[in-house]
């Protein structure tokens, strides 16, 4: 009996001092951040953000809606000051673990986003898989946009990029990845660039970052060449002019091989891309012979090769910034030579060759050679 | 009391004692010492540990139903044995207490920010005491059950991490010119294998037979491969240049991965911390058991449970003495060097005496 009681007593003690008691807080006693915006306005850091409204407002209750989000804005000379001001506006302590997106304003991105990346990396409750984006208009303006297609601006941005990336038409970098790029080399990378157009939030292309500072923007159409190298599974729609007709294809990268070489103190990079193409439809239905298919494969290969080459030349000549991460491939093959060189100086002069092989695998079950009987 | 274990239990005791806090910083240490060639260094370290394991298993195998306390007296006499025992007891005690502290510090820094370390430690040490009172066989069974869960969950998790990593991050796999560096670094990477000396306090009996060698050596080989999997999966996500900045490299990697296709388990950190706490718990109780057992052999008149309570209580107090995380880390680093004496020097002396005096033939 006494033994049993002593066990019960021990259990009770554990319950009382149970470690999570110290950290426990009710969910409705927390300000759950959905998105964070960082910008510089008049030499001051501007923090903006969306906070989930867990208790519905009187207005929304009338409309019998689910709770939405409210936006908060704060300023300070440093992150810490801005955060203190930000916290002063909130009724409860901020919880960052649910933050989906961090939006950098152009002004702040031009100064360099590295400090904020480290902030996310080392602040405990931030997820390191947050999506970073650069916004043309500034986060403050962005969070003002009235959203109809999603719960909040943060969710909308994440959802847009998620569906684009999963269908191979955009990249979805995370803060963790950017930190790896910064730690590994010159801090050259691209991140999604968004903006407001006709009062709607839209994905506009890619922001080019060098040493984590914004140095330029690549518009949506020009991103395709980059996607062929950077996207996880690029699937791009290509339209080919052929025999006074237009044919729409969906290309999928089947294999991508990047090889680097070092000869006579010169770096050369060879990119081999194996493409699979599906013929989706023709603008005007015409018969397609095997000869046409071979011709189309050649044209497609040439087009993709040109797009990729243009994208690379832009990186080499205009931005002088290796956002393709060729540096990693070179370092993996020639670690000792890499140690002695400055990649940022070598990359613009490197010889880069692109080889594209395309195979048209199907015509989406359409038979362009069907024979009429009558 | 019959304290003999089955071969499988012995193998899982090895897994329990080896895989614990050490895995947290393992990828960082590997990347720092040998970069992407770290897998090879770990392989060498594993082979060296396998040799040591053979020696340790051999000692227990030859001296059946005896622990180091008894066979050391037989081989070296009482005085030397007492010196050895003091070294071991102090070693087990300090590692037990510091391991408890550093694990609690890590939990405090990563999930329970507001919970004081003394409260976390109190829970850890109290449960350790409870487990200790149940003695070796229960501890072994616990290691068996926990071990299977840990192995299954962590292998799945590290394979999942690989899907998020990039092959280019773990290249070059091997640089021939760096071979001397790899060899040299293997000594440093033996530290995660510290704890294998626990075999000296596990008495073997006839049932264990020669098969026990297979079990212990295979388990060390498995742990070596497990470590390689841990290190390579983390480096594939973070890259060698990044990972060196993180003392909690494994947790840092896990917090950088978000596997969308896994849906409800897309964030791995929750699972990881549960598994890791289980591993820490196994490690702690085995270290504590080592110390308490040797003490109980010495102070035969004092009941085992009272000794356990005293040791755990003192360890709890000692664990709270260092004021910062860095101090604990430093103590553990020094303990690594101290461990070298306990894992290699003393067992080697006993092994060679056994061989020279031909005890293996007499037994």
From TrEMBL, chain A:
GO process annotations (BP): spore germination
Signal peptide positions on this chain: 1-23
The entry's keywords:
Germination, Lipoprotein, Membrane, Palmitate, Signal
InterPro entries per the UniProt record, alphabetical: GerAC_N, Spore_GerAC-like, Spore_GerAC-like_C, Spore_GerAC_C_sf
Q: Name one GO cellular component term.
A: membrane
Under Pfam families, the record lists: Spore_GerAC, Spore_GerAC_N
Spans through the membrane: none
Topology of the protein relative to the lipid bilayer: Lipid-anchor
- Residue ranges annotated for the Spore germination protein N-terminal domain, each copy included: 23-195
Q: Which residues form the Spore germination GerAC-like C-terminal domain?
A: 205-362
Location comes to: Membrane
- Going by the entry's taxonomy, the superkingdom of the source organism is recorded as Bacteria
Predominantly, its location class is membrane
Family statement drawn from the similarity comment of this UniProt entry? Belongs to the GerABKC lipoprotein family.
* Matching NCBIfam families: spore_ger_x_C
Q: Which PANTHER family match?
A: SPORE GERMINATION PROTEIN B3 (PTHR35789)
Protein name, UniProt field: Ger(X)C family spore germination protein
Q: Which organism is it from?
A: Crassaminicella thermophila
Automatic annotation (TrEMBL), chain B:
Key word Lipid metabolism present: no
An example of a Gene Ontology cellular component annotation for this protein is: membrane
| Main localization, broad class | membrane
Establish whether keyword Plastid is in the entry.
no
Among InterPro entries, the record links this protein to: Spore_GerAB (IPR004761)
GO biological process terms, semicolon-separated = spore germination
Q: Give membrane topology per the record.
A: Multi-pass membrane protein
Give the UniProt subcellular location, in the record's own words. Membrane
Which keywords has UniProt assigned to this entry?
Germination, Membrane, Transmembrane, Transmembrane helix, Transport
TM regions (residue ranges): 9-27, 39-59, 79-99, 111-132, 139-161, 181-200, 212-230, 271-295, 302-322, 334-353
Q: Which PANTHER family match?
A: SPORE GERMINATION PROTEIN A2 (PTHR34975)
Q: Which family does it belong to?
A: Belongs to the amino acid-polyamine-organocation (APC) superfamily. Spore germination protein (SGP) (TC 2.A.3.9) family.
Report the protein name in the record.
GerAB/ArcD/ProY family transporter
* Species the sequence originates in: Crassaminicella thermophila
